[in-house]
Amino acid sequence: MAHIFKNPTKENKGIIVFTHKEWPWLLNKALPVIEQLKTQYYLGWNQGTYFGQINLPNIIDFALTSPNMMSFPDNGKTLNIPLCDRNFLLSDFKNLNIQEKYFDVIAVSRATKIKYMPDFLKSIRKCYDKGNKLQTLIVVPISENEKLTPEKYDRDIVKTYKDLFTPEERKTVTLLRLSEELGYLGISPQTINWFYNNSKVLYIGSKSEGTCRVVHEALLGGCHIVYYKDHKGGLVDYLDEDNSVYYNNHDNIDIALSKAVKKYKYSKEKTDKFDFILSENHTKEKLSPYFKKLYEQNNQIYDGELININNLSLRLPAHYDDVSWADNSQATTDILTIERLTNFINYLNEQNS
Fold first, then answer.
1. How far apart are CA 107 and CA 235, in angstroms?
2. Which residue, 169, 212, 215, 288, could crosslink 165 as a Cys pair with Cβ 3.0–4.6 Å?
């Protein structure tokens, strides 16, 4: 969504960030509005999915991204800021210093086909058949879009689970299928954080996506990660031999899971280091050096004061709906209609009047 980091003053510009989804629409449908905004604000781009290399238009003053999601040649106008929404995770996600883990493996994912959740269940079955009875927790919220686009989801995930595991085995392989009535976030971040902190290994099955906040939330909770080797996206940021194991294809997930669980060792020091990198607790410290450079390059003064710096992991990708331009036209708060853009401009005018 359009996110306001700073209001303009008589001497200095403000700061607004638009998502990678909003920018193409704005440049195509509302270029004069964007050009007018640029006279009062520095305009940023927040990348939320894998693009590879692209050319960014000069009108964009800075881009929040990761080289594993998007790169762009230096155009002399756009400052590259190697941070994105997953670098500002809710402070609820943190290390609880639980050294003895209850779960061997955890998976937190919607049942979209790109997540390969049936393959994960089959891999746990393989581990059981080899005598490796992994204590497993699977959290699968029901997406609000499942009924609208059922072809994109493994909607029979509960049946698959019941077919693969006997009632006795389900005592150690737990599936939580959360109702769509709970909304987009499912259950509280504090509870999910407790799950992470009580787990050794997180499975993530996608071959390509954006920042994948689940992975980085799990790193804050002390998990190691099992992931697809050739994954394209920001998911792989901060993964190394010490905190992750990859698999080459989805038939070998069980081998990676067993290896990761066997070699897992909790390290408070290594887990705590992710707090600065990934938590919103250090938002101003992380952003200010880049914003200071942006202002200095344009002969203006950055005073270090920012607004709306809570919930950035939700605000930046347009998953935060407590804004005046939100409506029921779409699931996110991206500005992709004239009505939303008009409401956003009216809000800016009210703030600066």
1. 15
2. 169
* 261-272 mean pLDDT: 97
Q: Give me the phi and psi of 17, to 5 degrees please.
A: -120, 135
Cα separation, 81 vs 63, in Å, equals 6
Q: Is the backbone of residue 2 left (phi > 0), alpha (psi -120 to 50) or beta?
A: beta
Q: 52-53 and 70-71 as β-strands: parallel, antiparallel, unpaired?
A: parallel
In the structure, how many helices (H) and strands (E) does the chain have? 12, 13
Residue 147 confidence (pLDDT) above 90: no
CA distance 153 to 109: 11
Q: Is the pTM of this model over 0.70?
A: yes
**Residues of the chain by 3-state class (helix, strand, coil), percent to 5:** 35, 20, 45
Q: For residue 4, report the phi and psi dihedrals to the nearest 5 degrees.
A: -100, 115
DSSP string, 278-319: HBGGGHHHHHHHHHHHHHHHTT----S--S--SSHHHHTTT-
Eight-state DSSP code of residue 249: S
Residue 54, Ramachandran bin (φ over 0: left; ψ between -120 and 50: alpha; else beta): beta
CB atoms within 10 A of CB 106: 26
Q: How confident is the model at residue 211 (pLDDT cuts 50, 70, 90)?
A: confident
Distance from C-alpha of 217 to C-alpha of 277, rounded to nearest angstrom: 11
| 149-193 pLDDT tens trace | 889 999 999 999 999 999 999 999 999 999 877 766 678 999 999
Angle between helices 31-38 and 22-29 (to 10 degrees): 100
Using 50, 70 and 90 to split pLDDT, how confident is the model at 210?
confident
In tens, the pLDDT along 88-136 reads 999 999 999 999 999 999 999 999 999 999 999 999 999 999 999 999 9
Are the C-beta atoms of 74 and 106 separated by less than 8 Å? no
> Which residues lie below 8 Å from residue 107, measured CB to CB, with a gap of 6+?
117, 120, 136, 137, 138, 139, 140, 202, 203, 204
* Residue 127 neighbours by CB distance under 10 Å: 22
Helix (H, G, I), strand (E, B) or coil at 174: strand
What percentage of residues in the chain have a pLDDT greater than 70?
Answer: 99
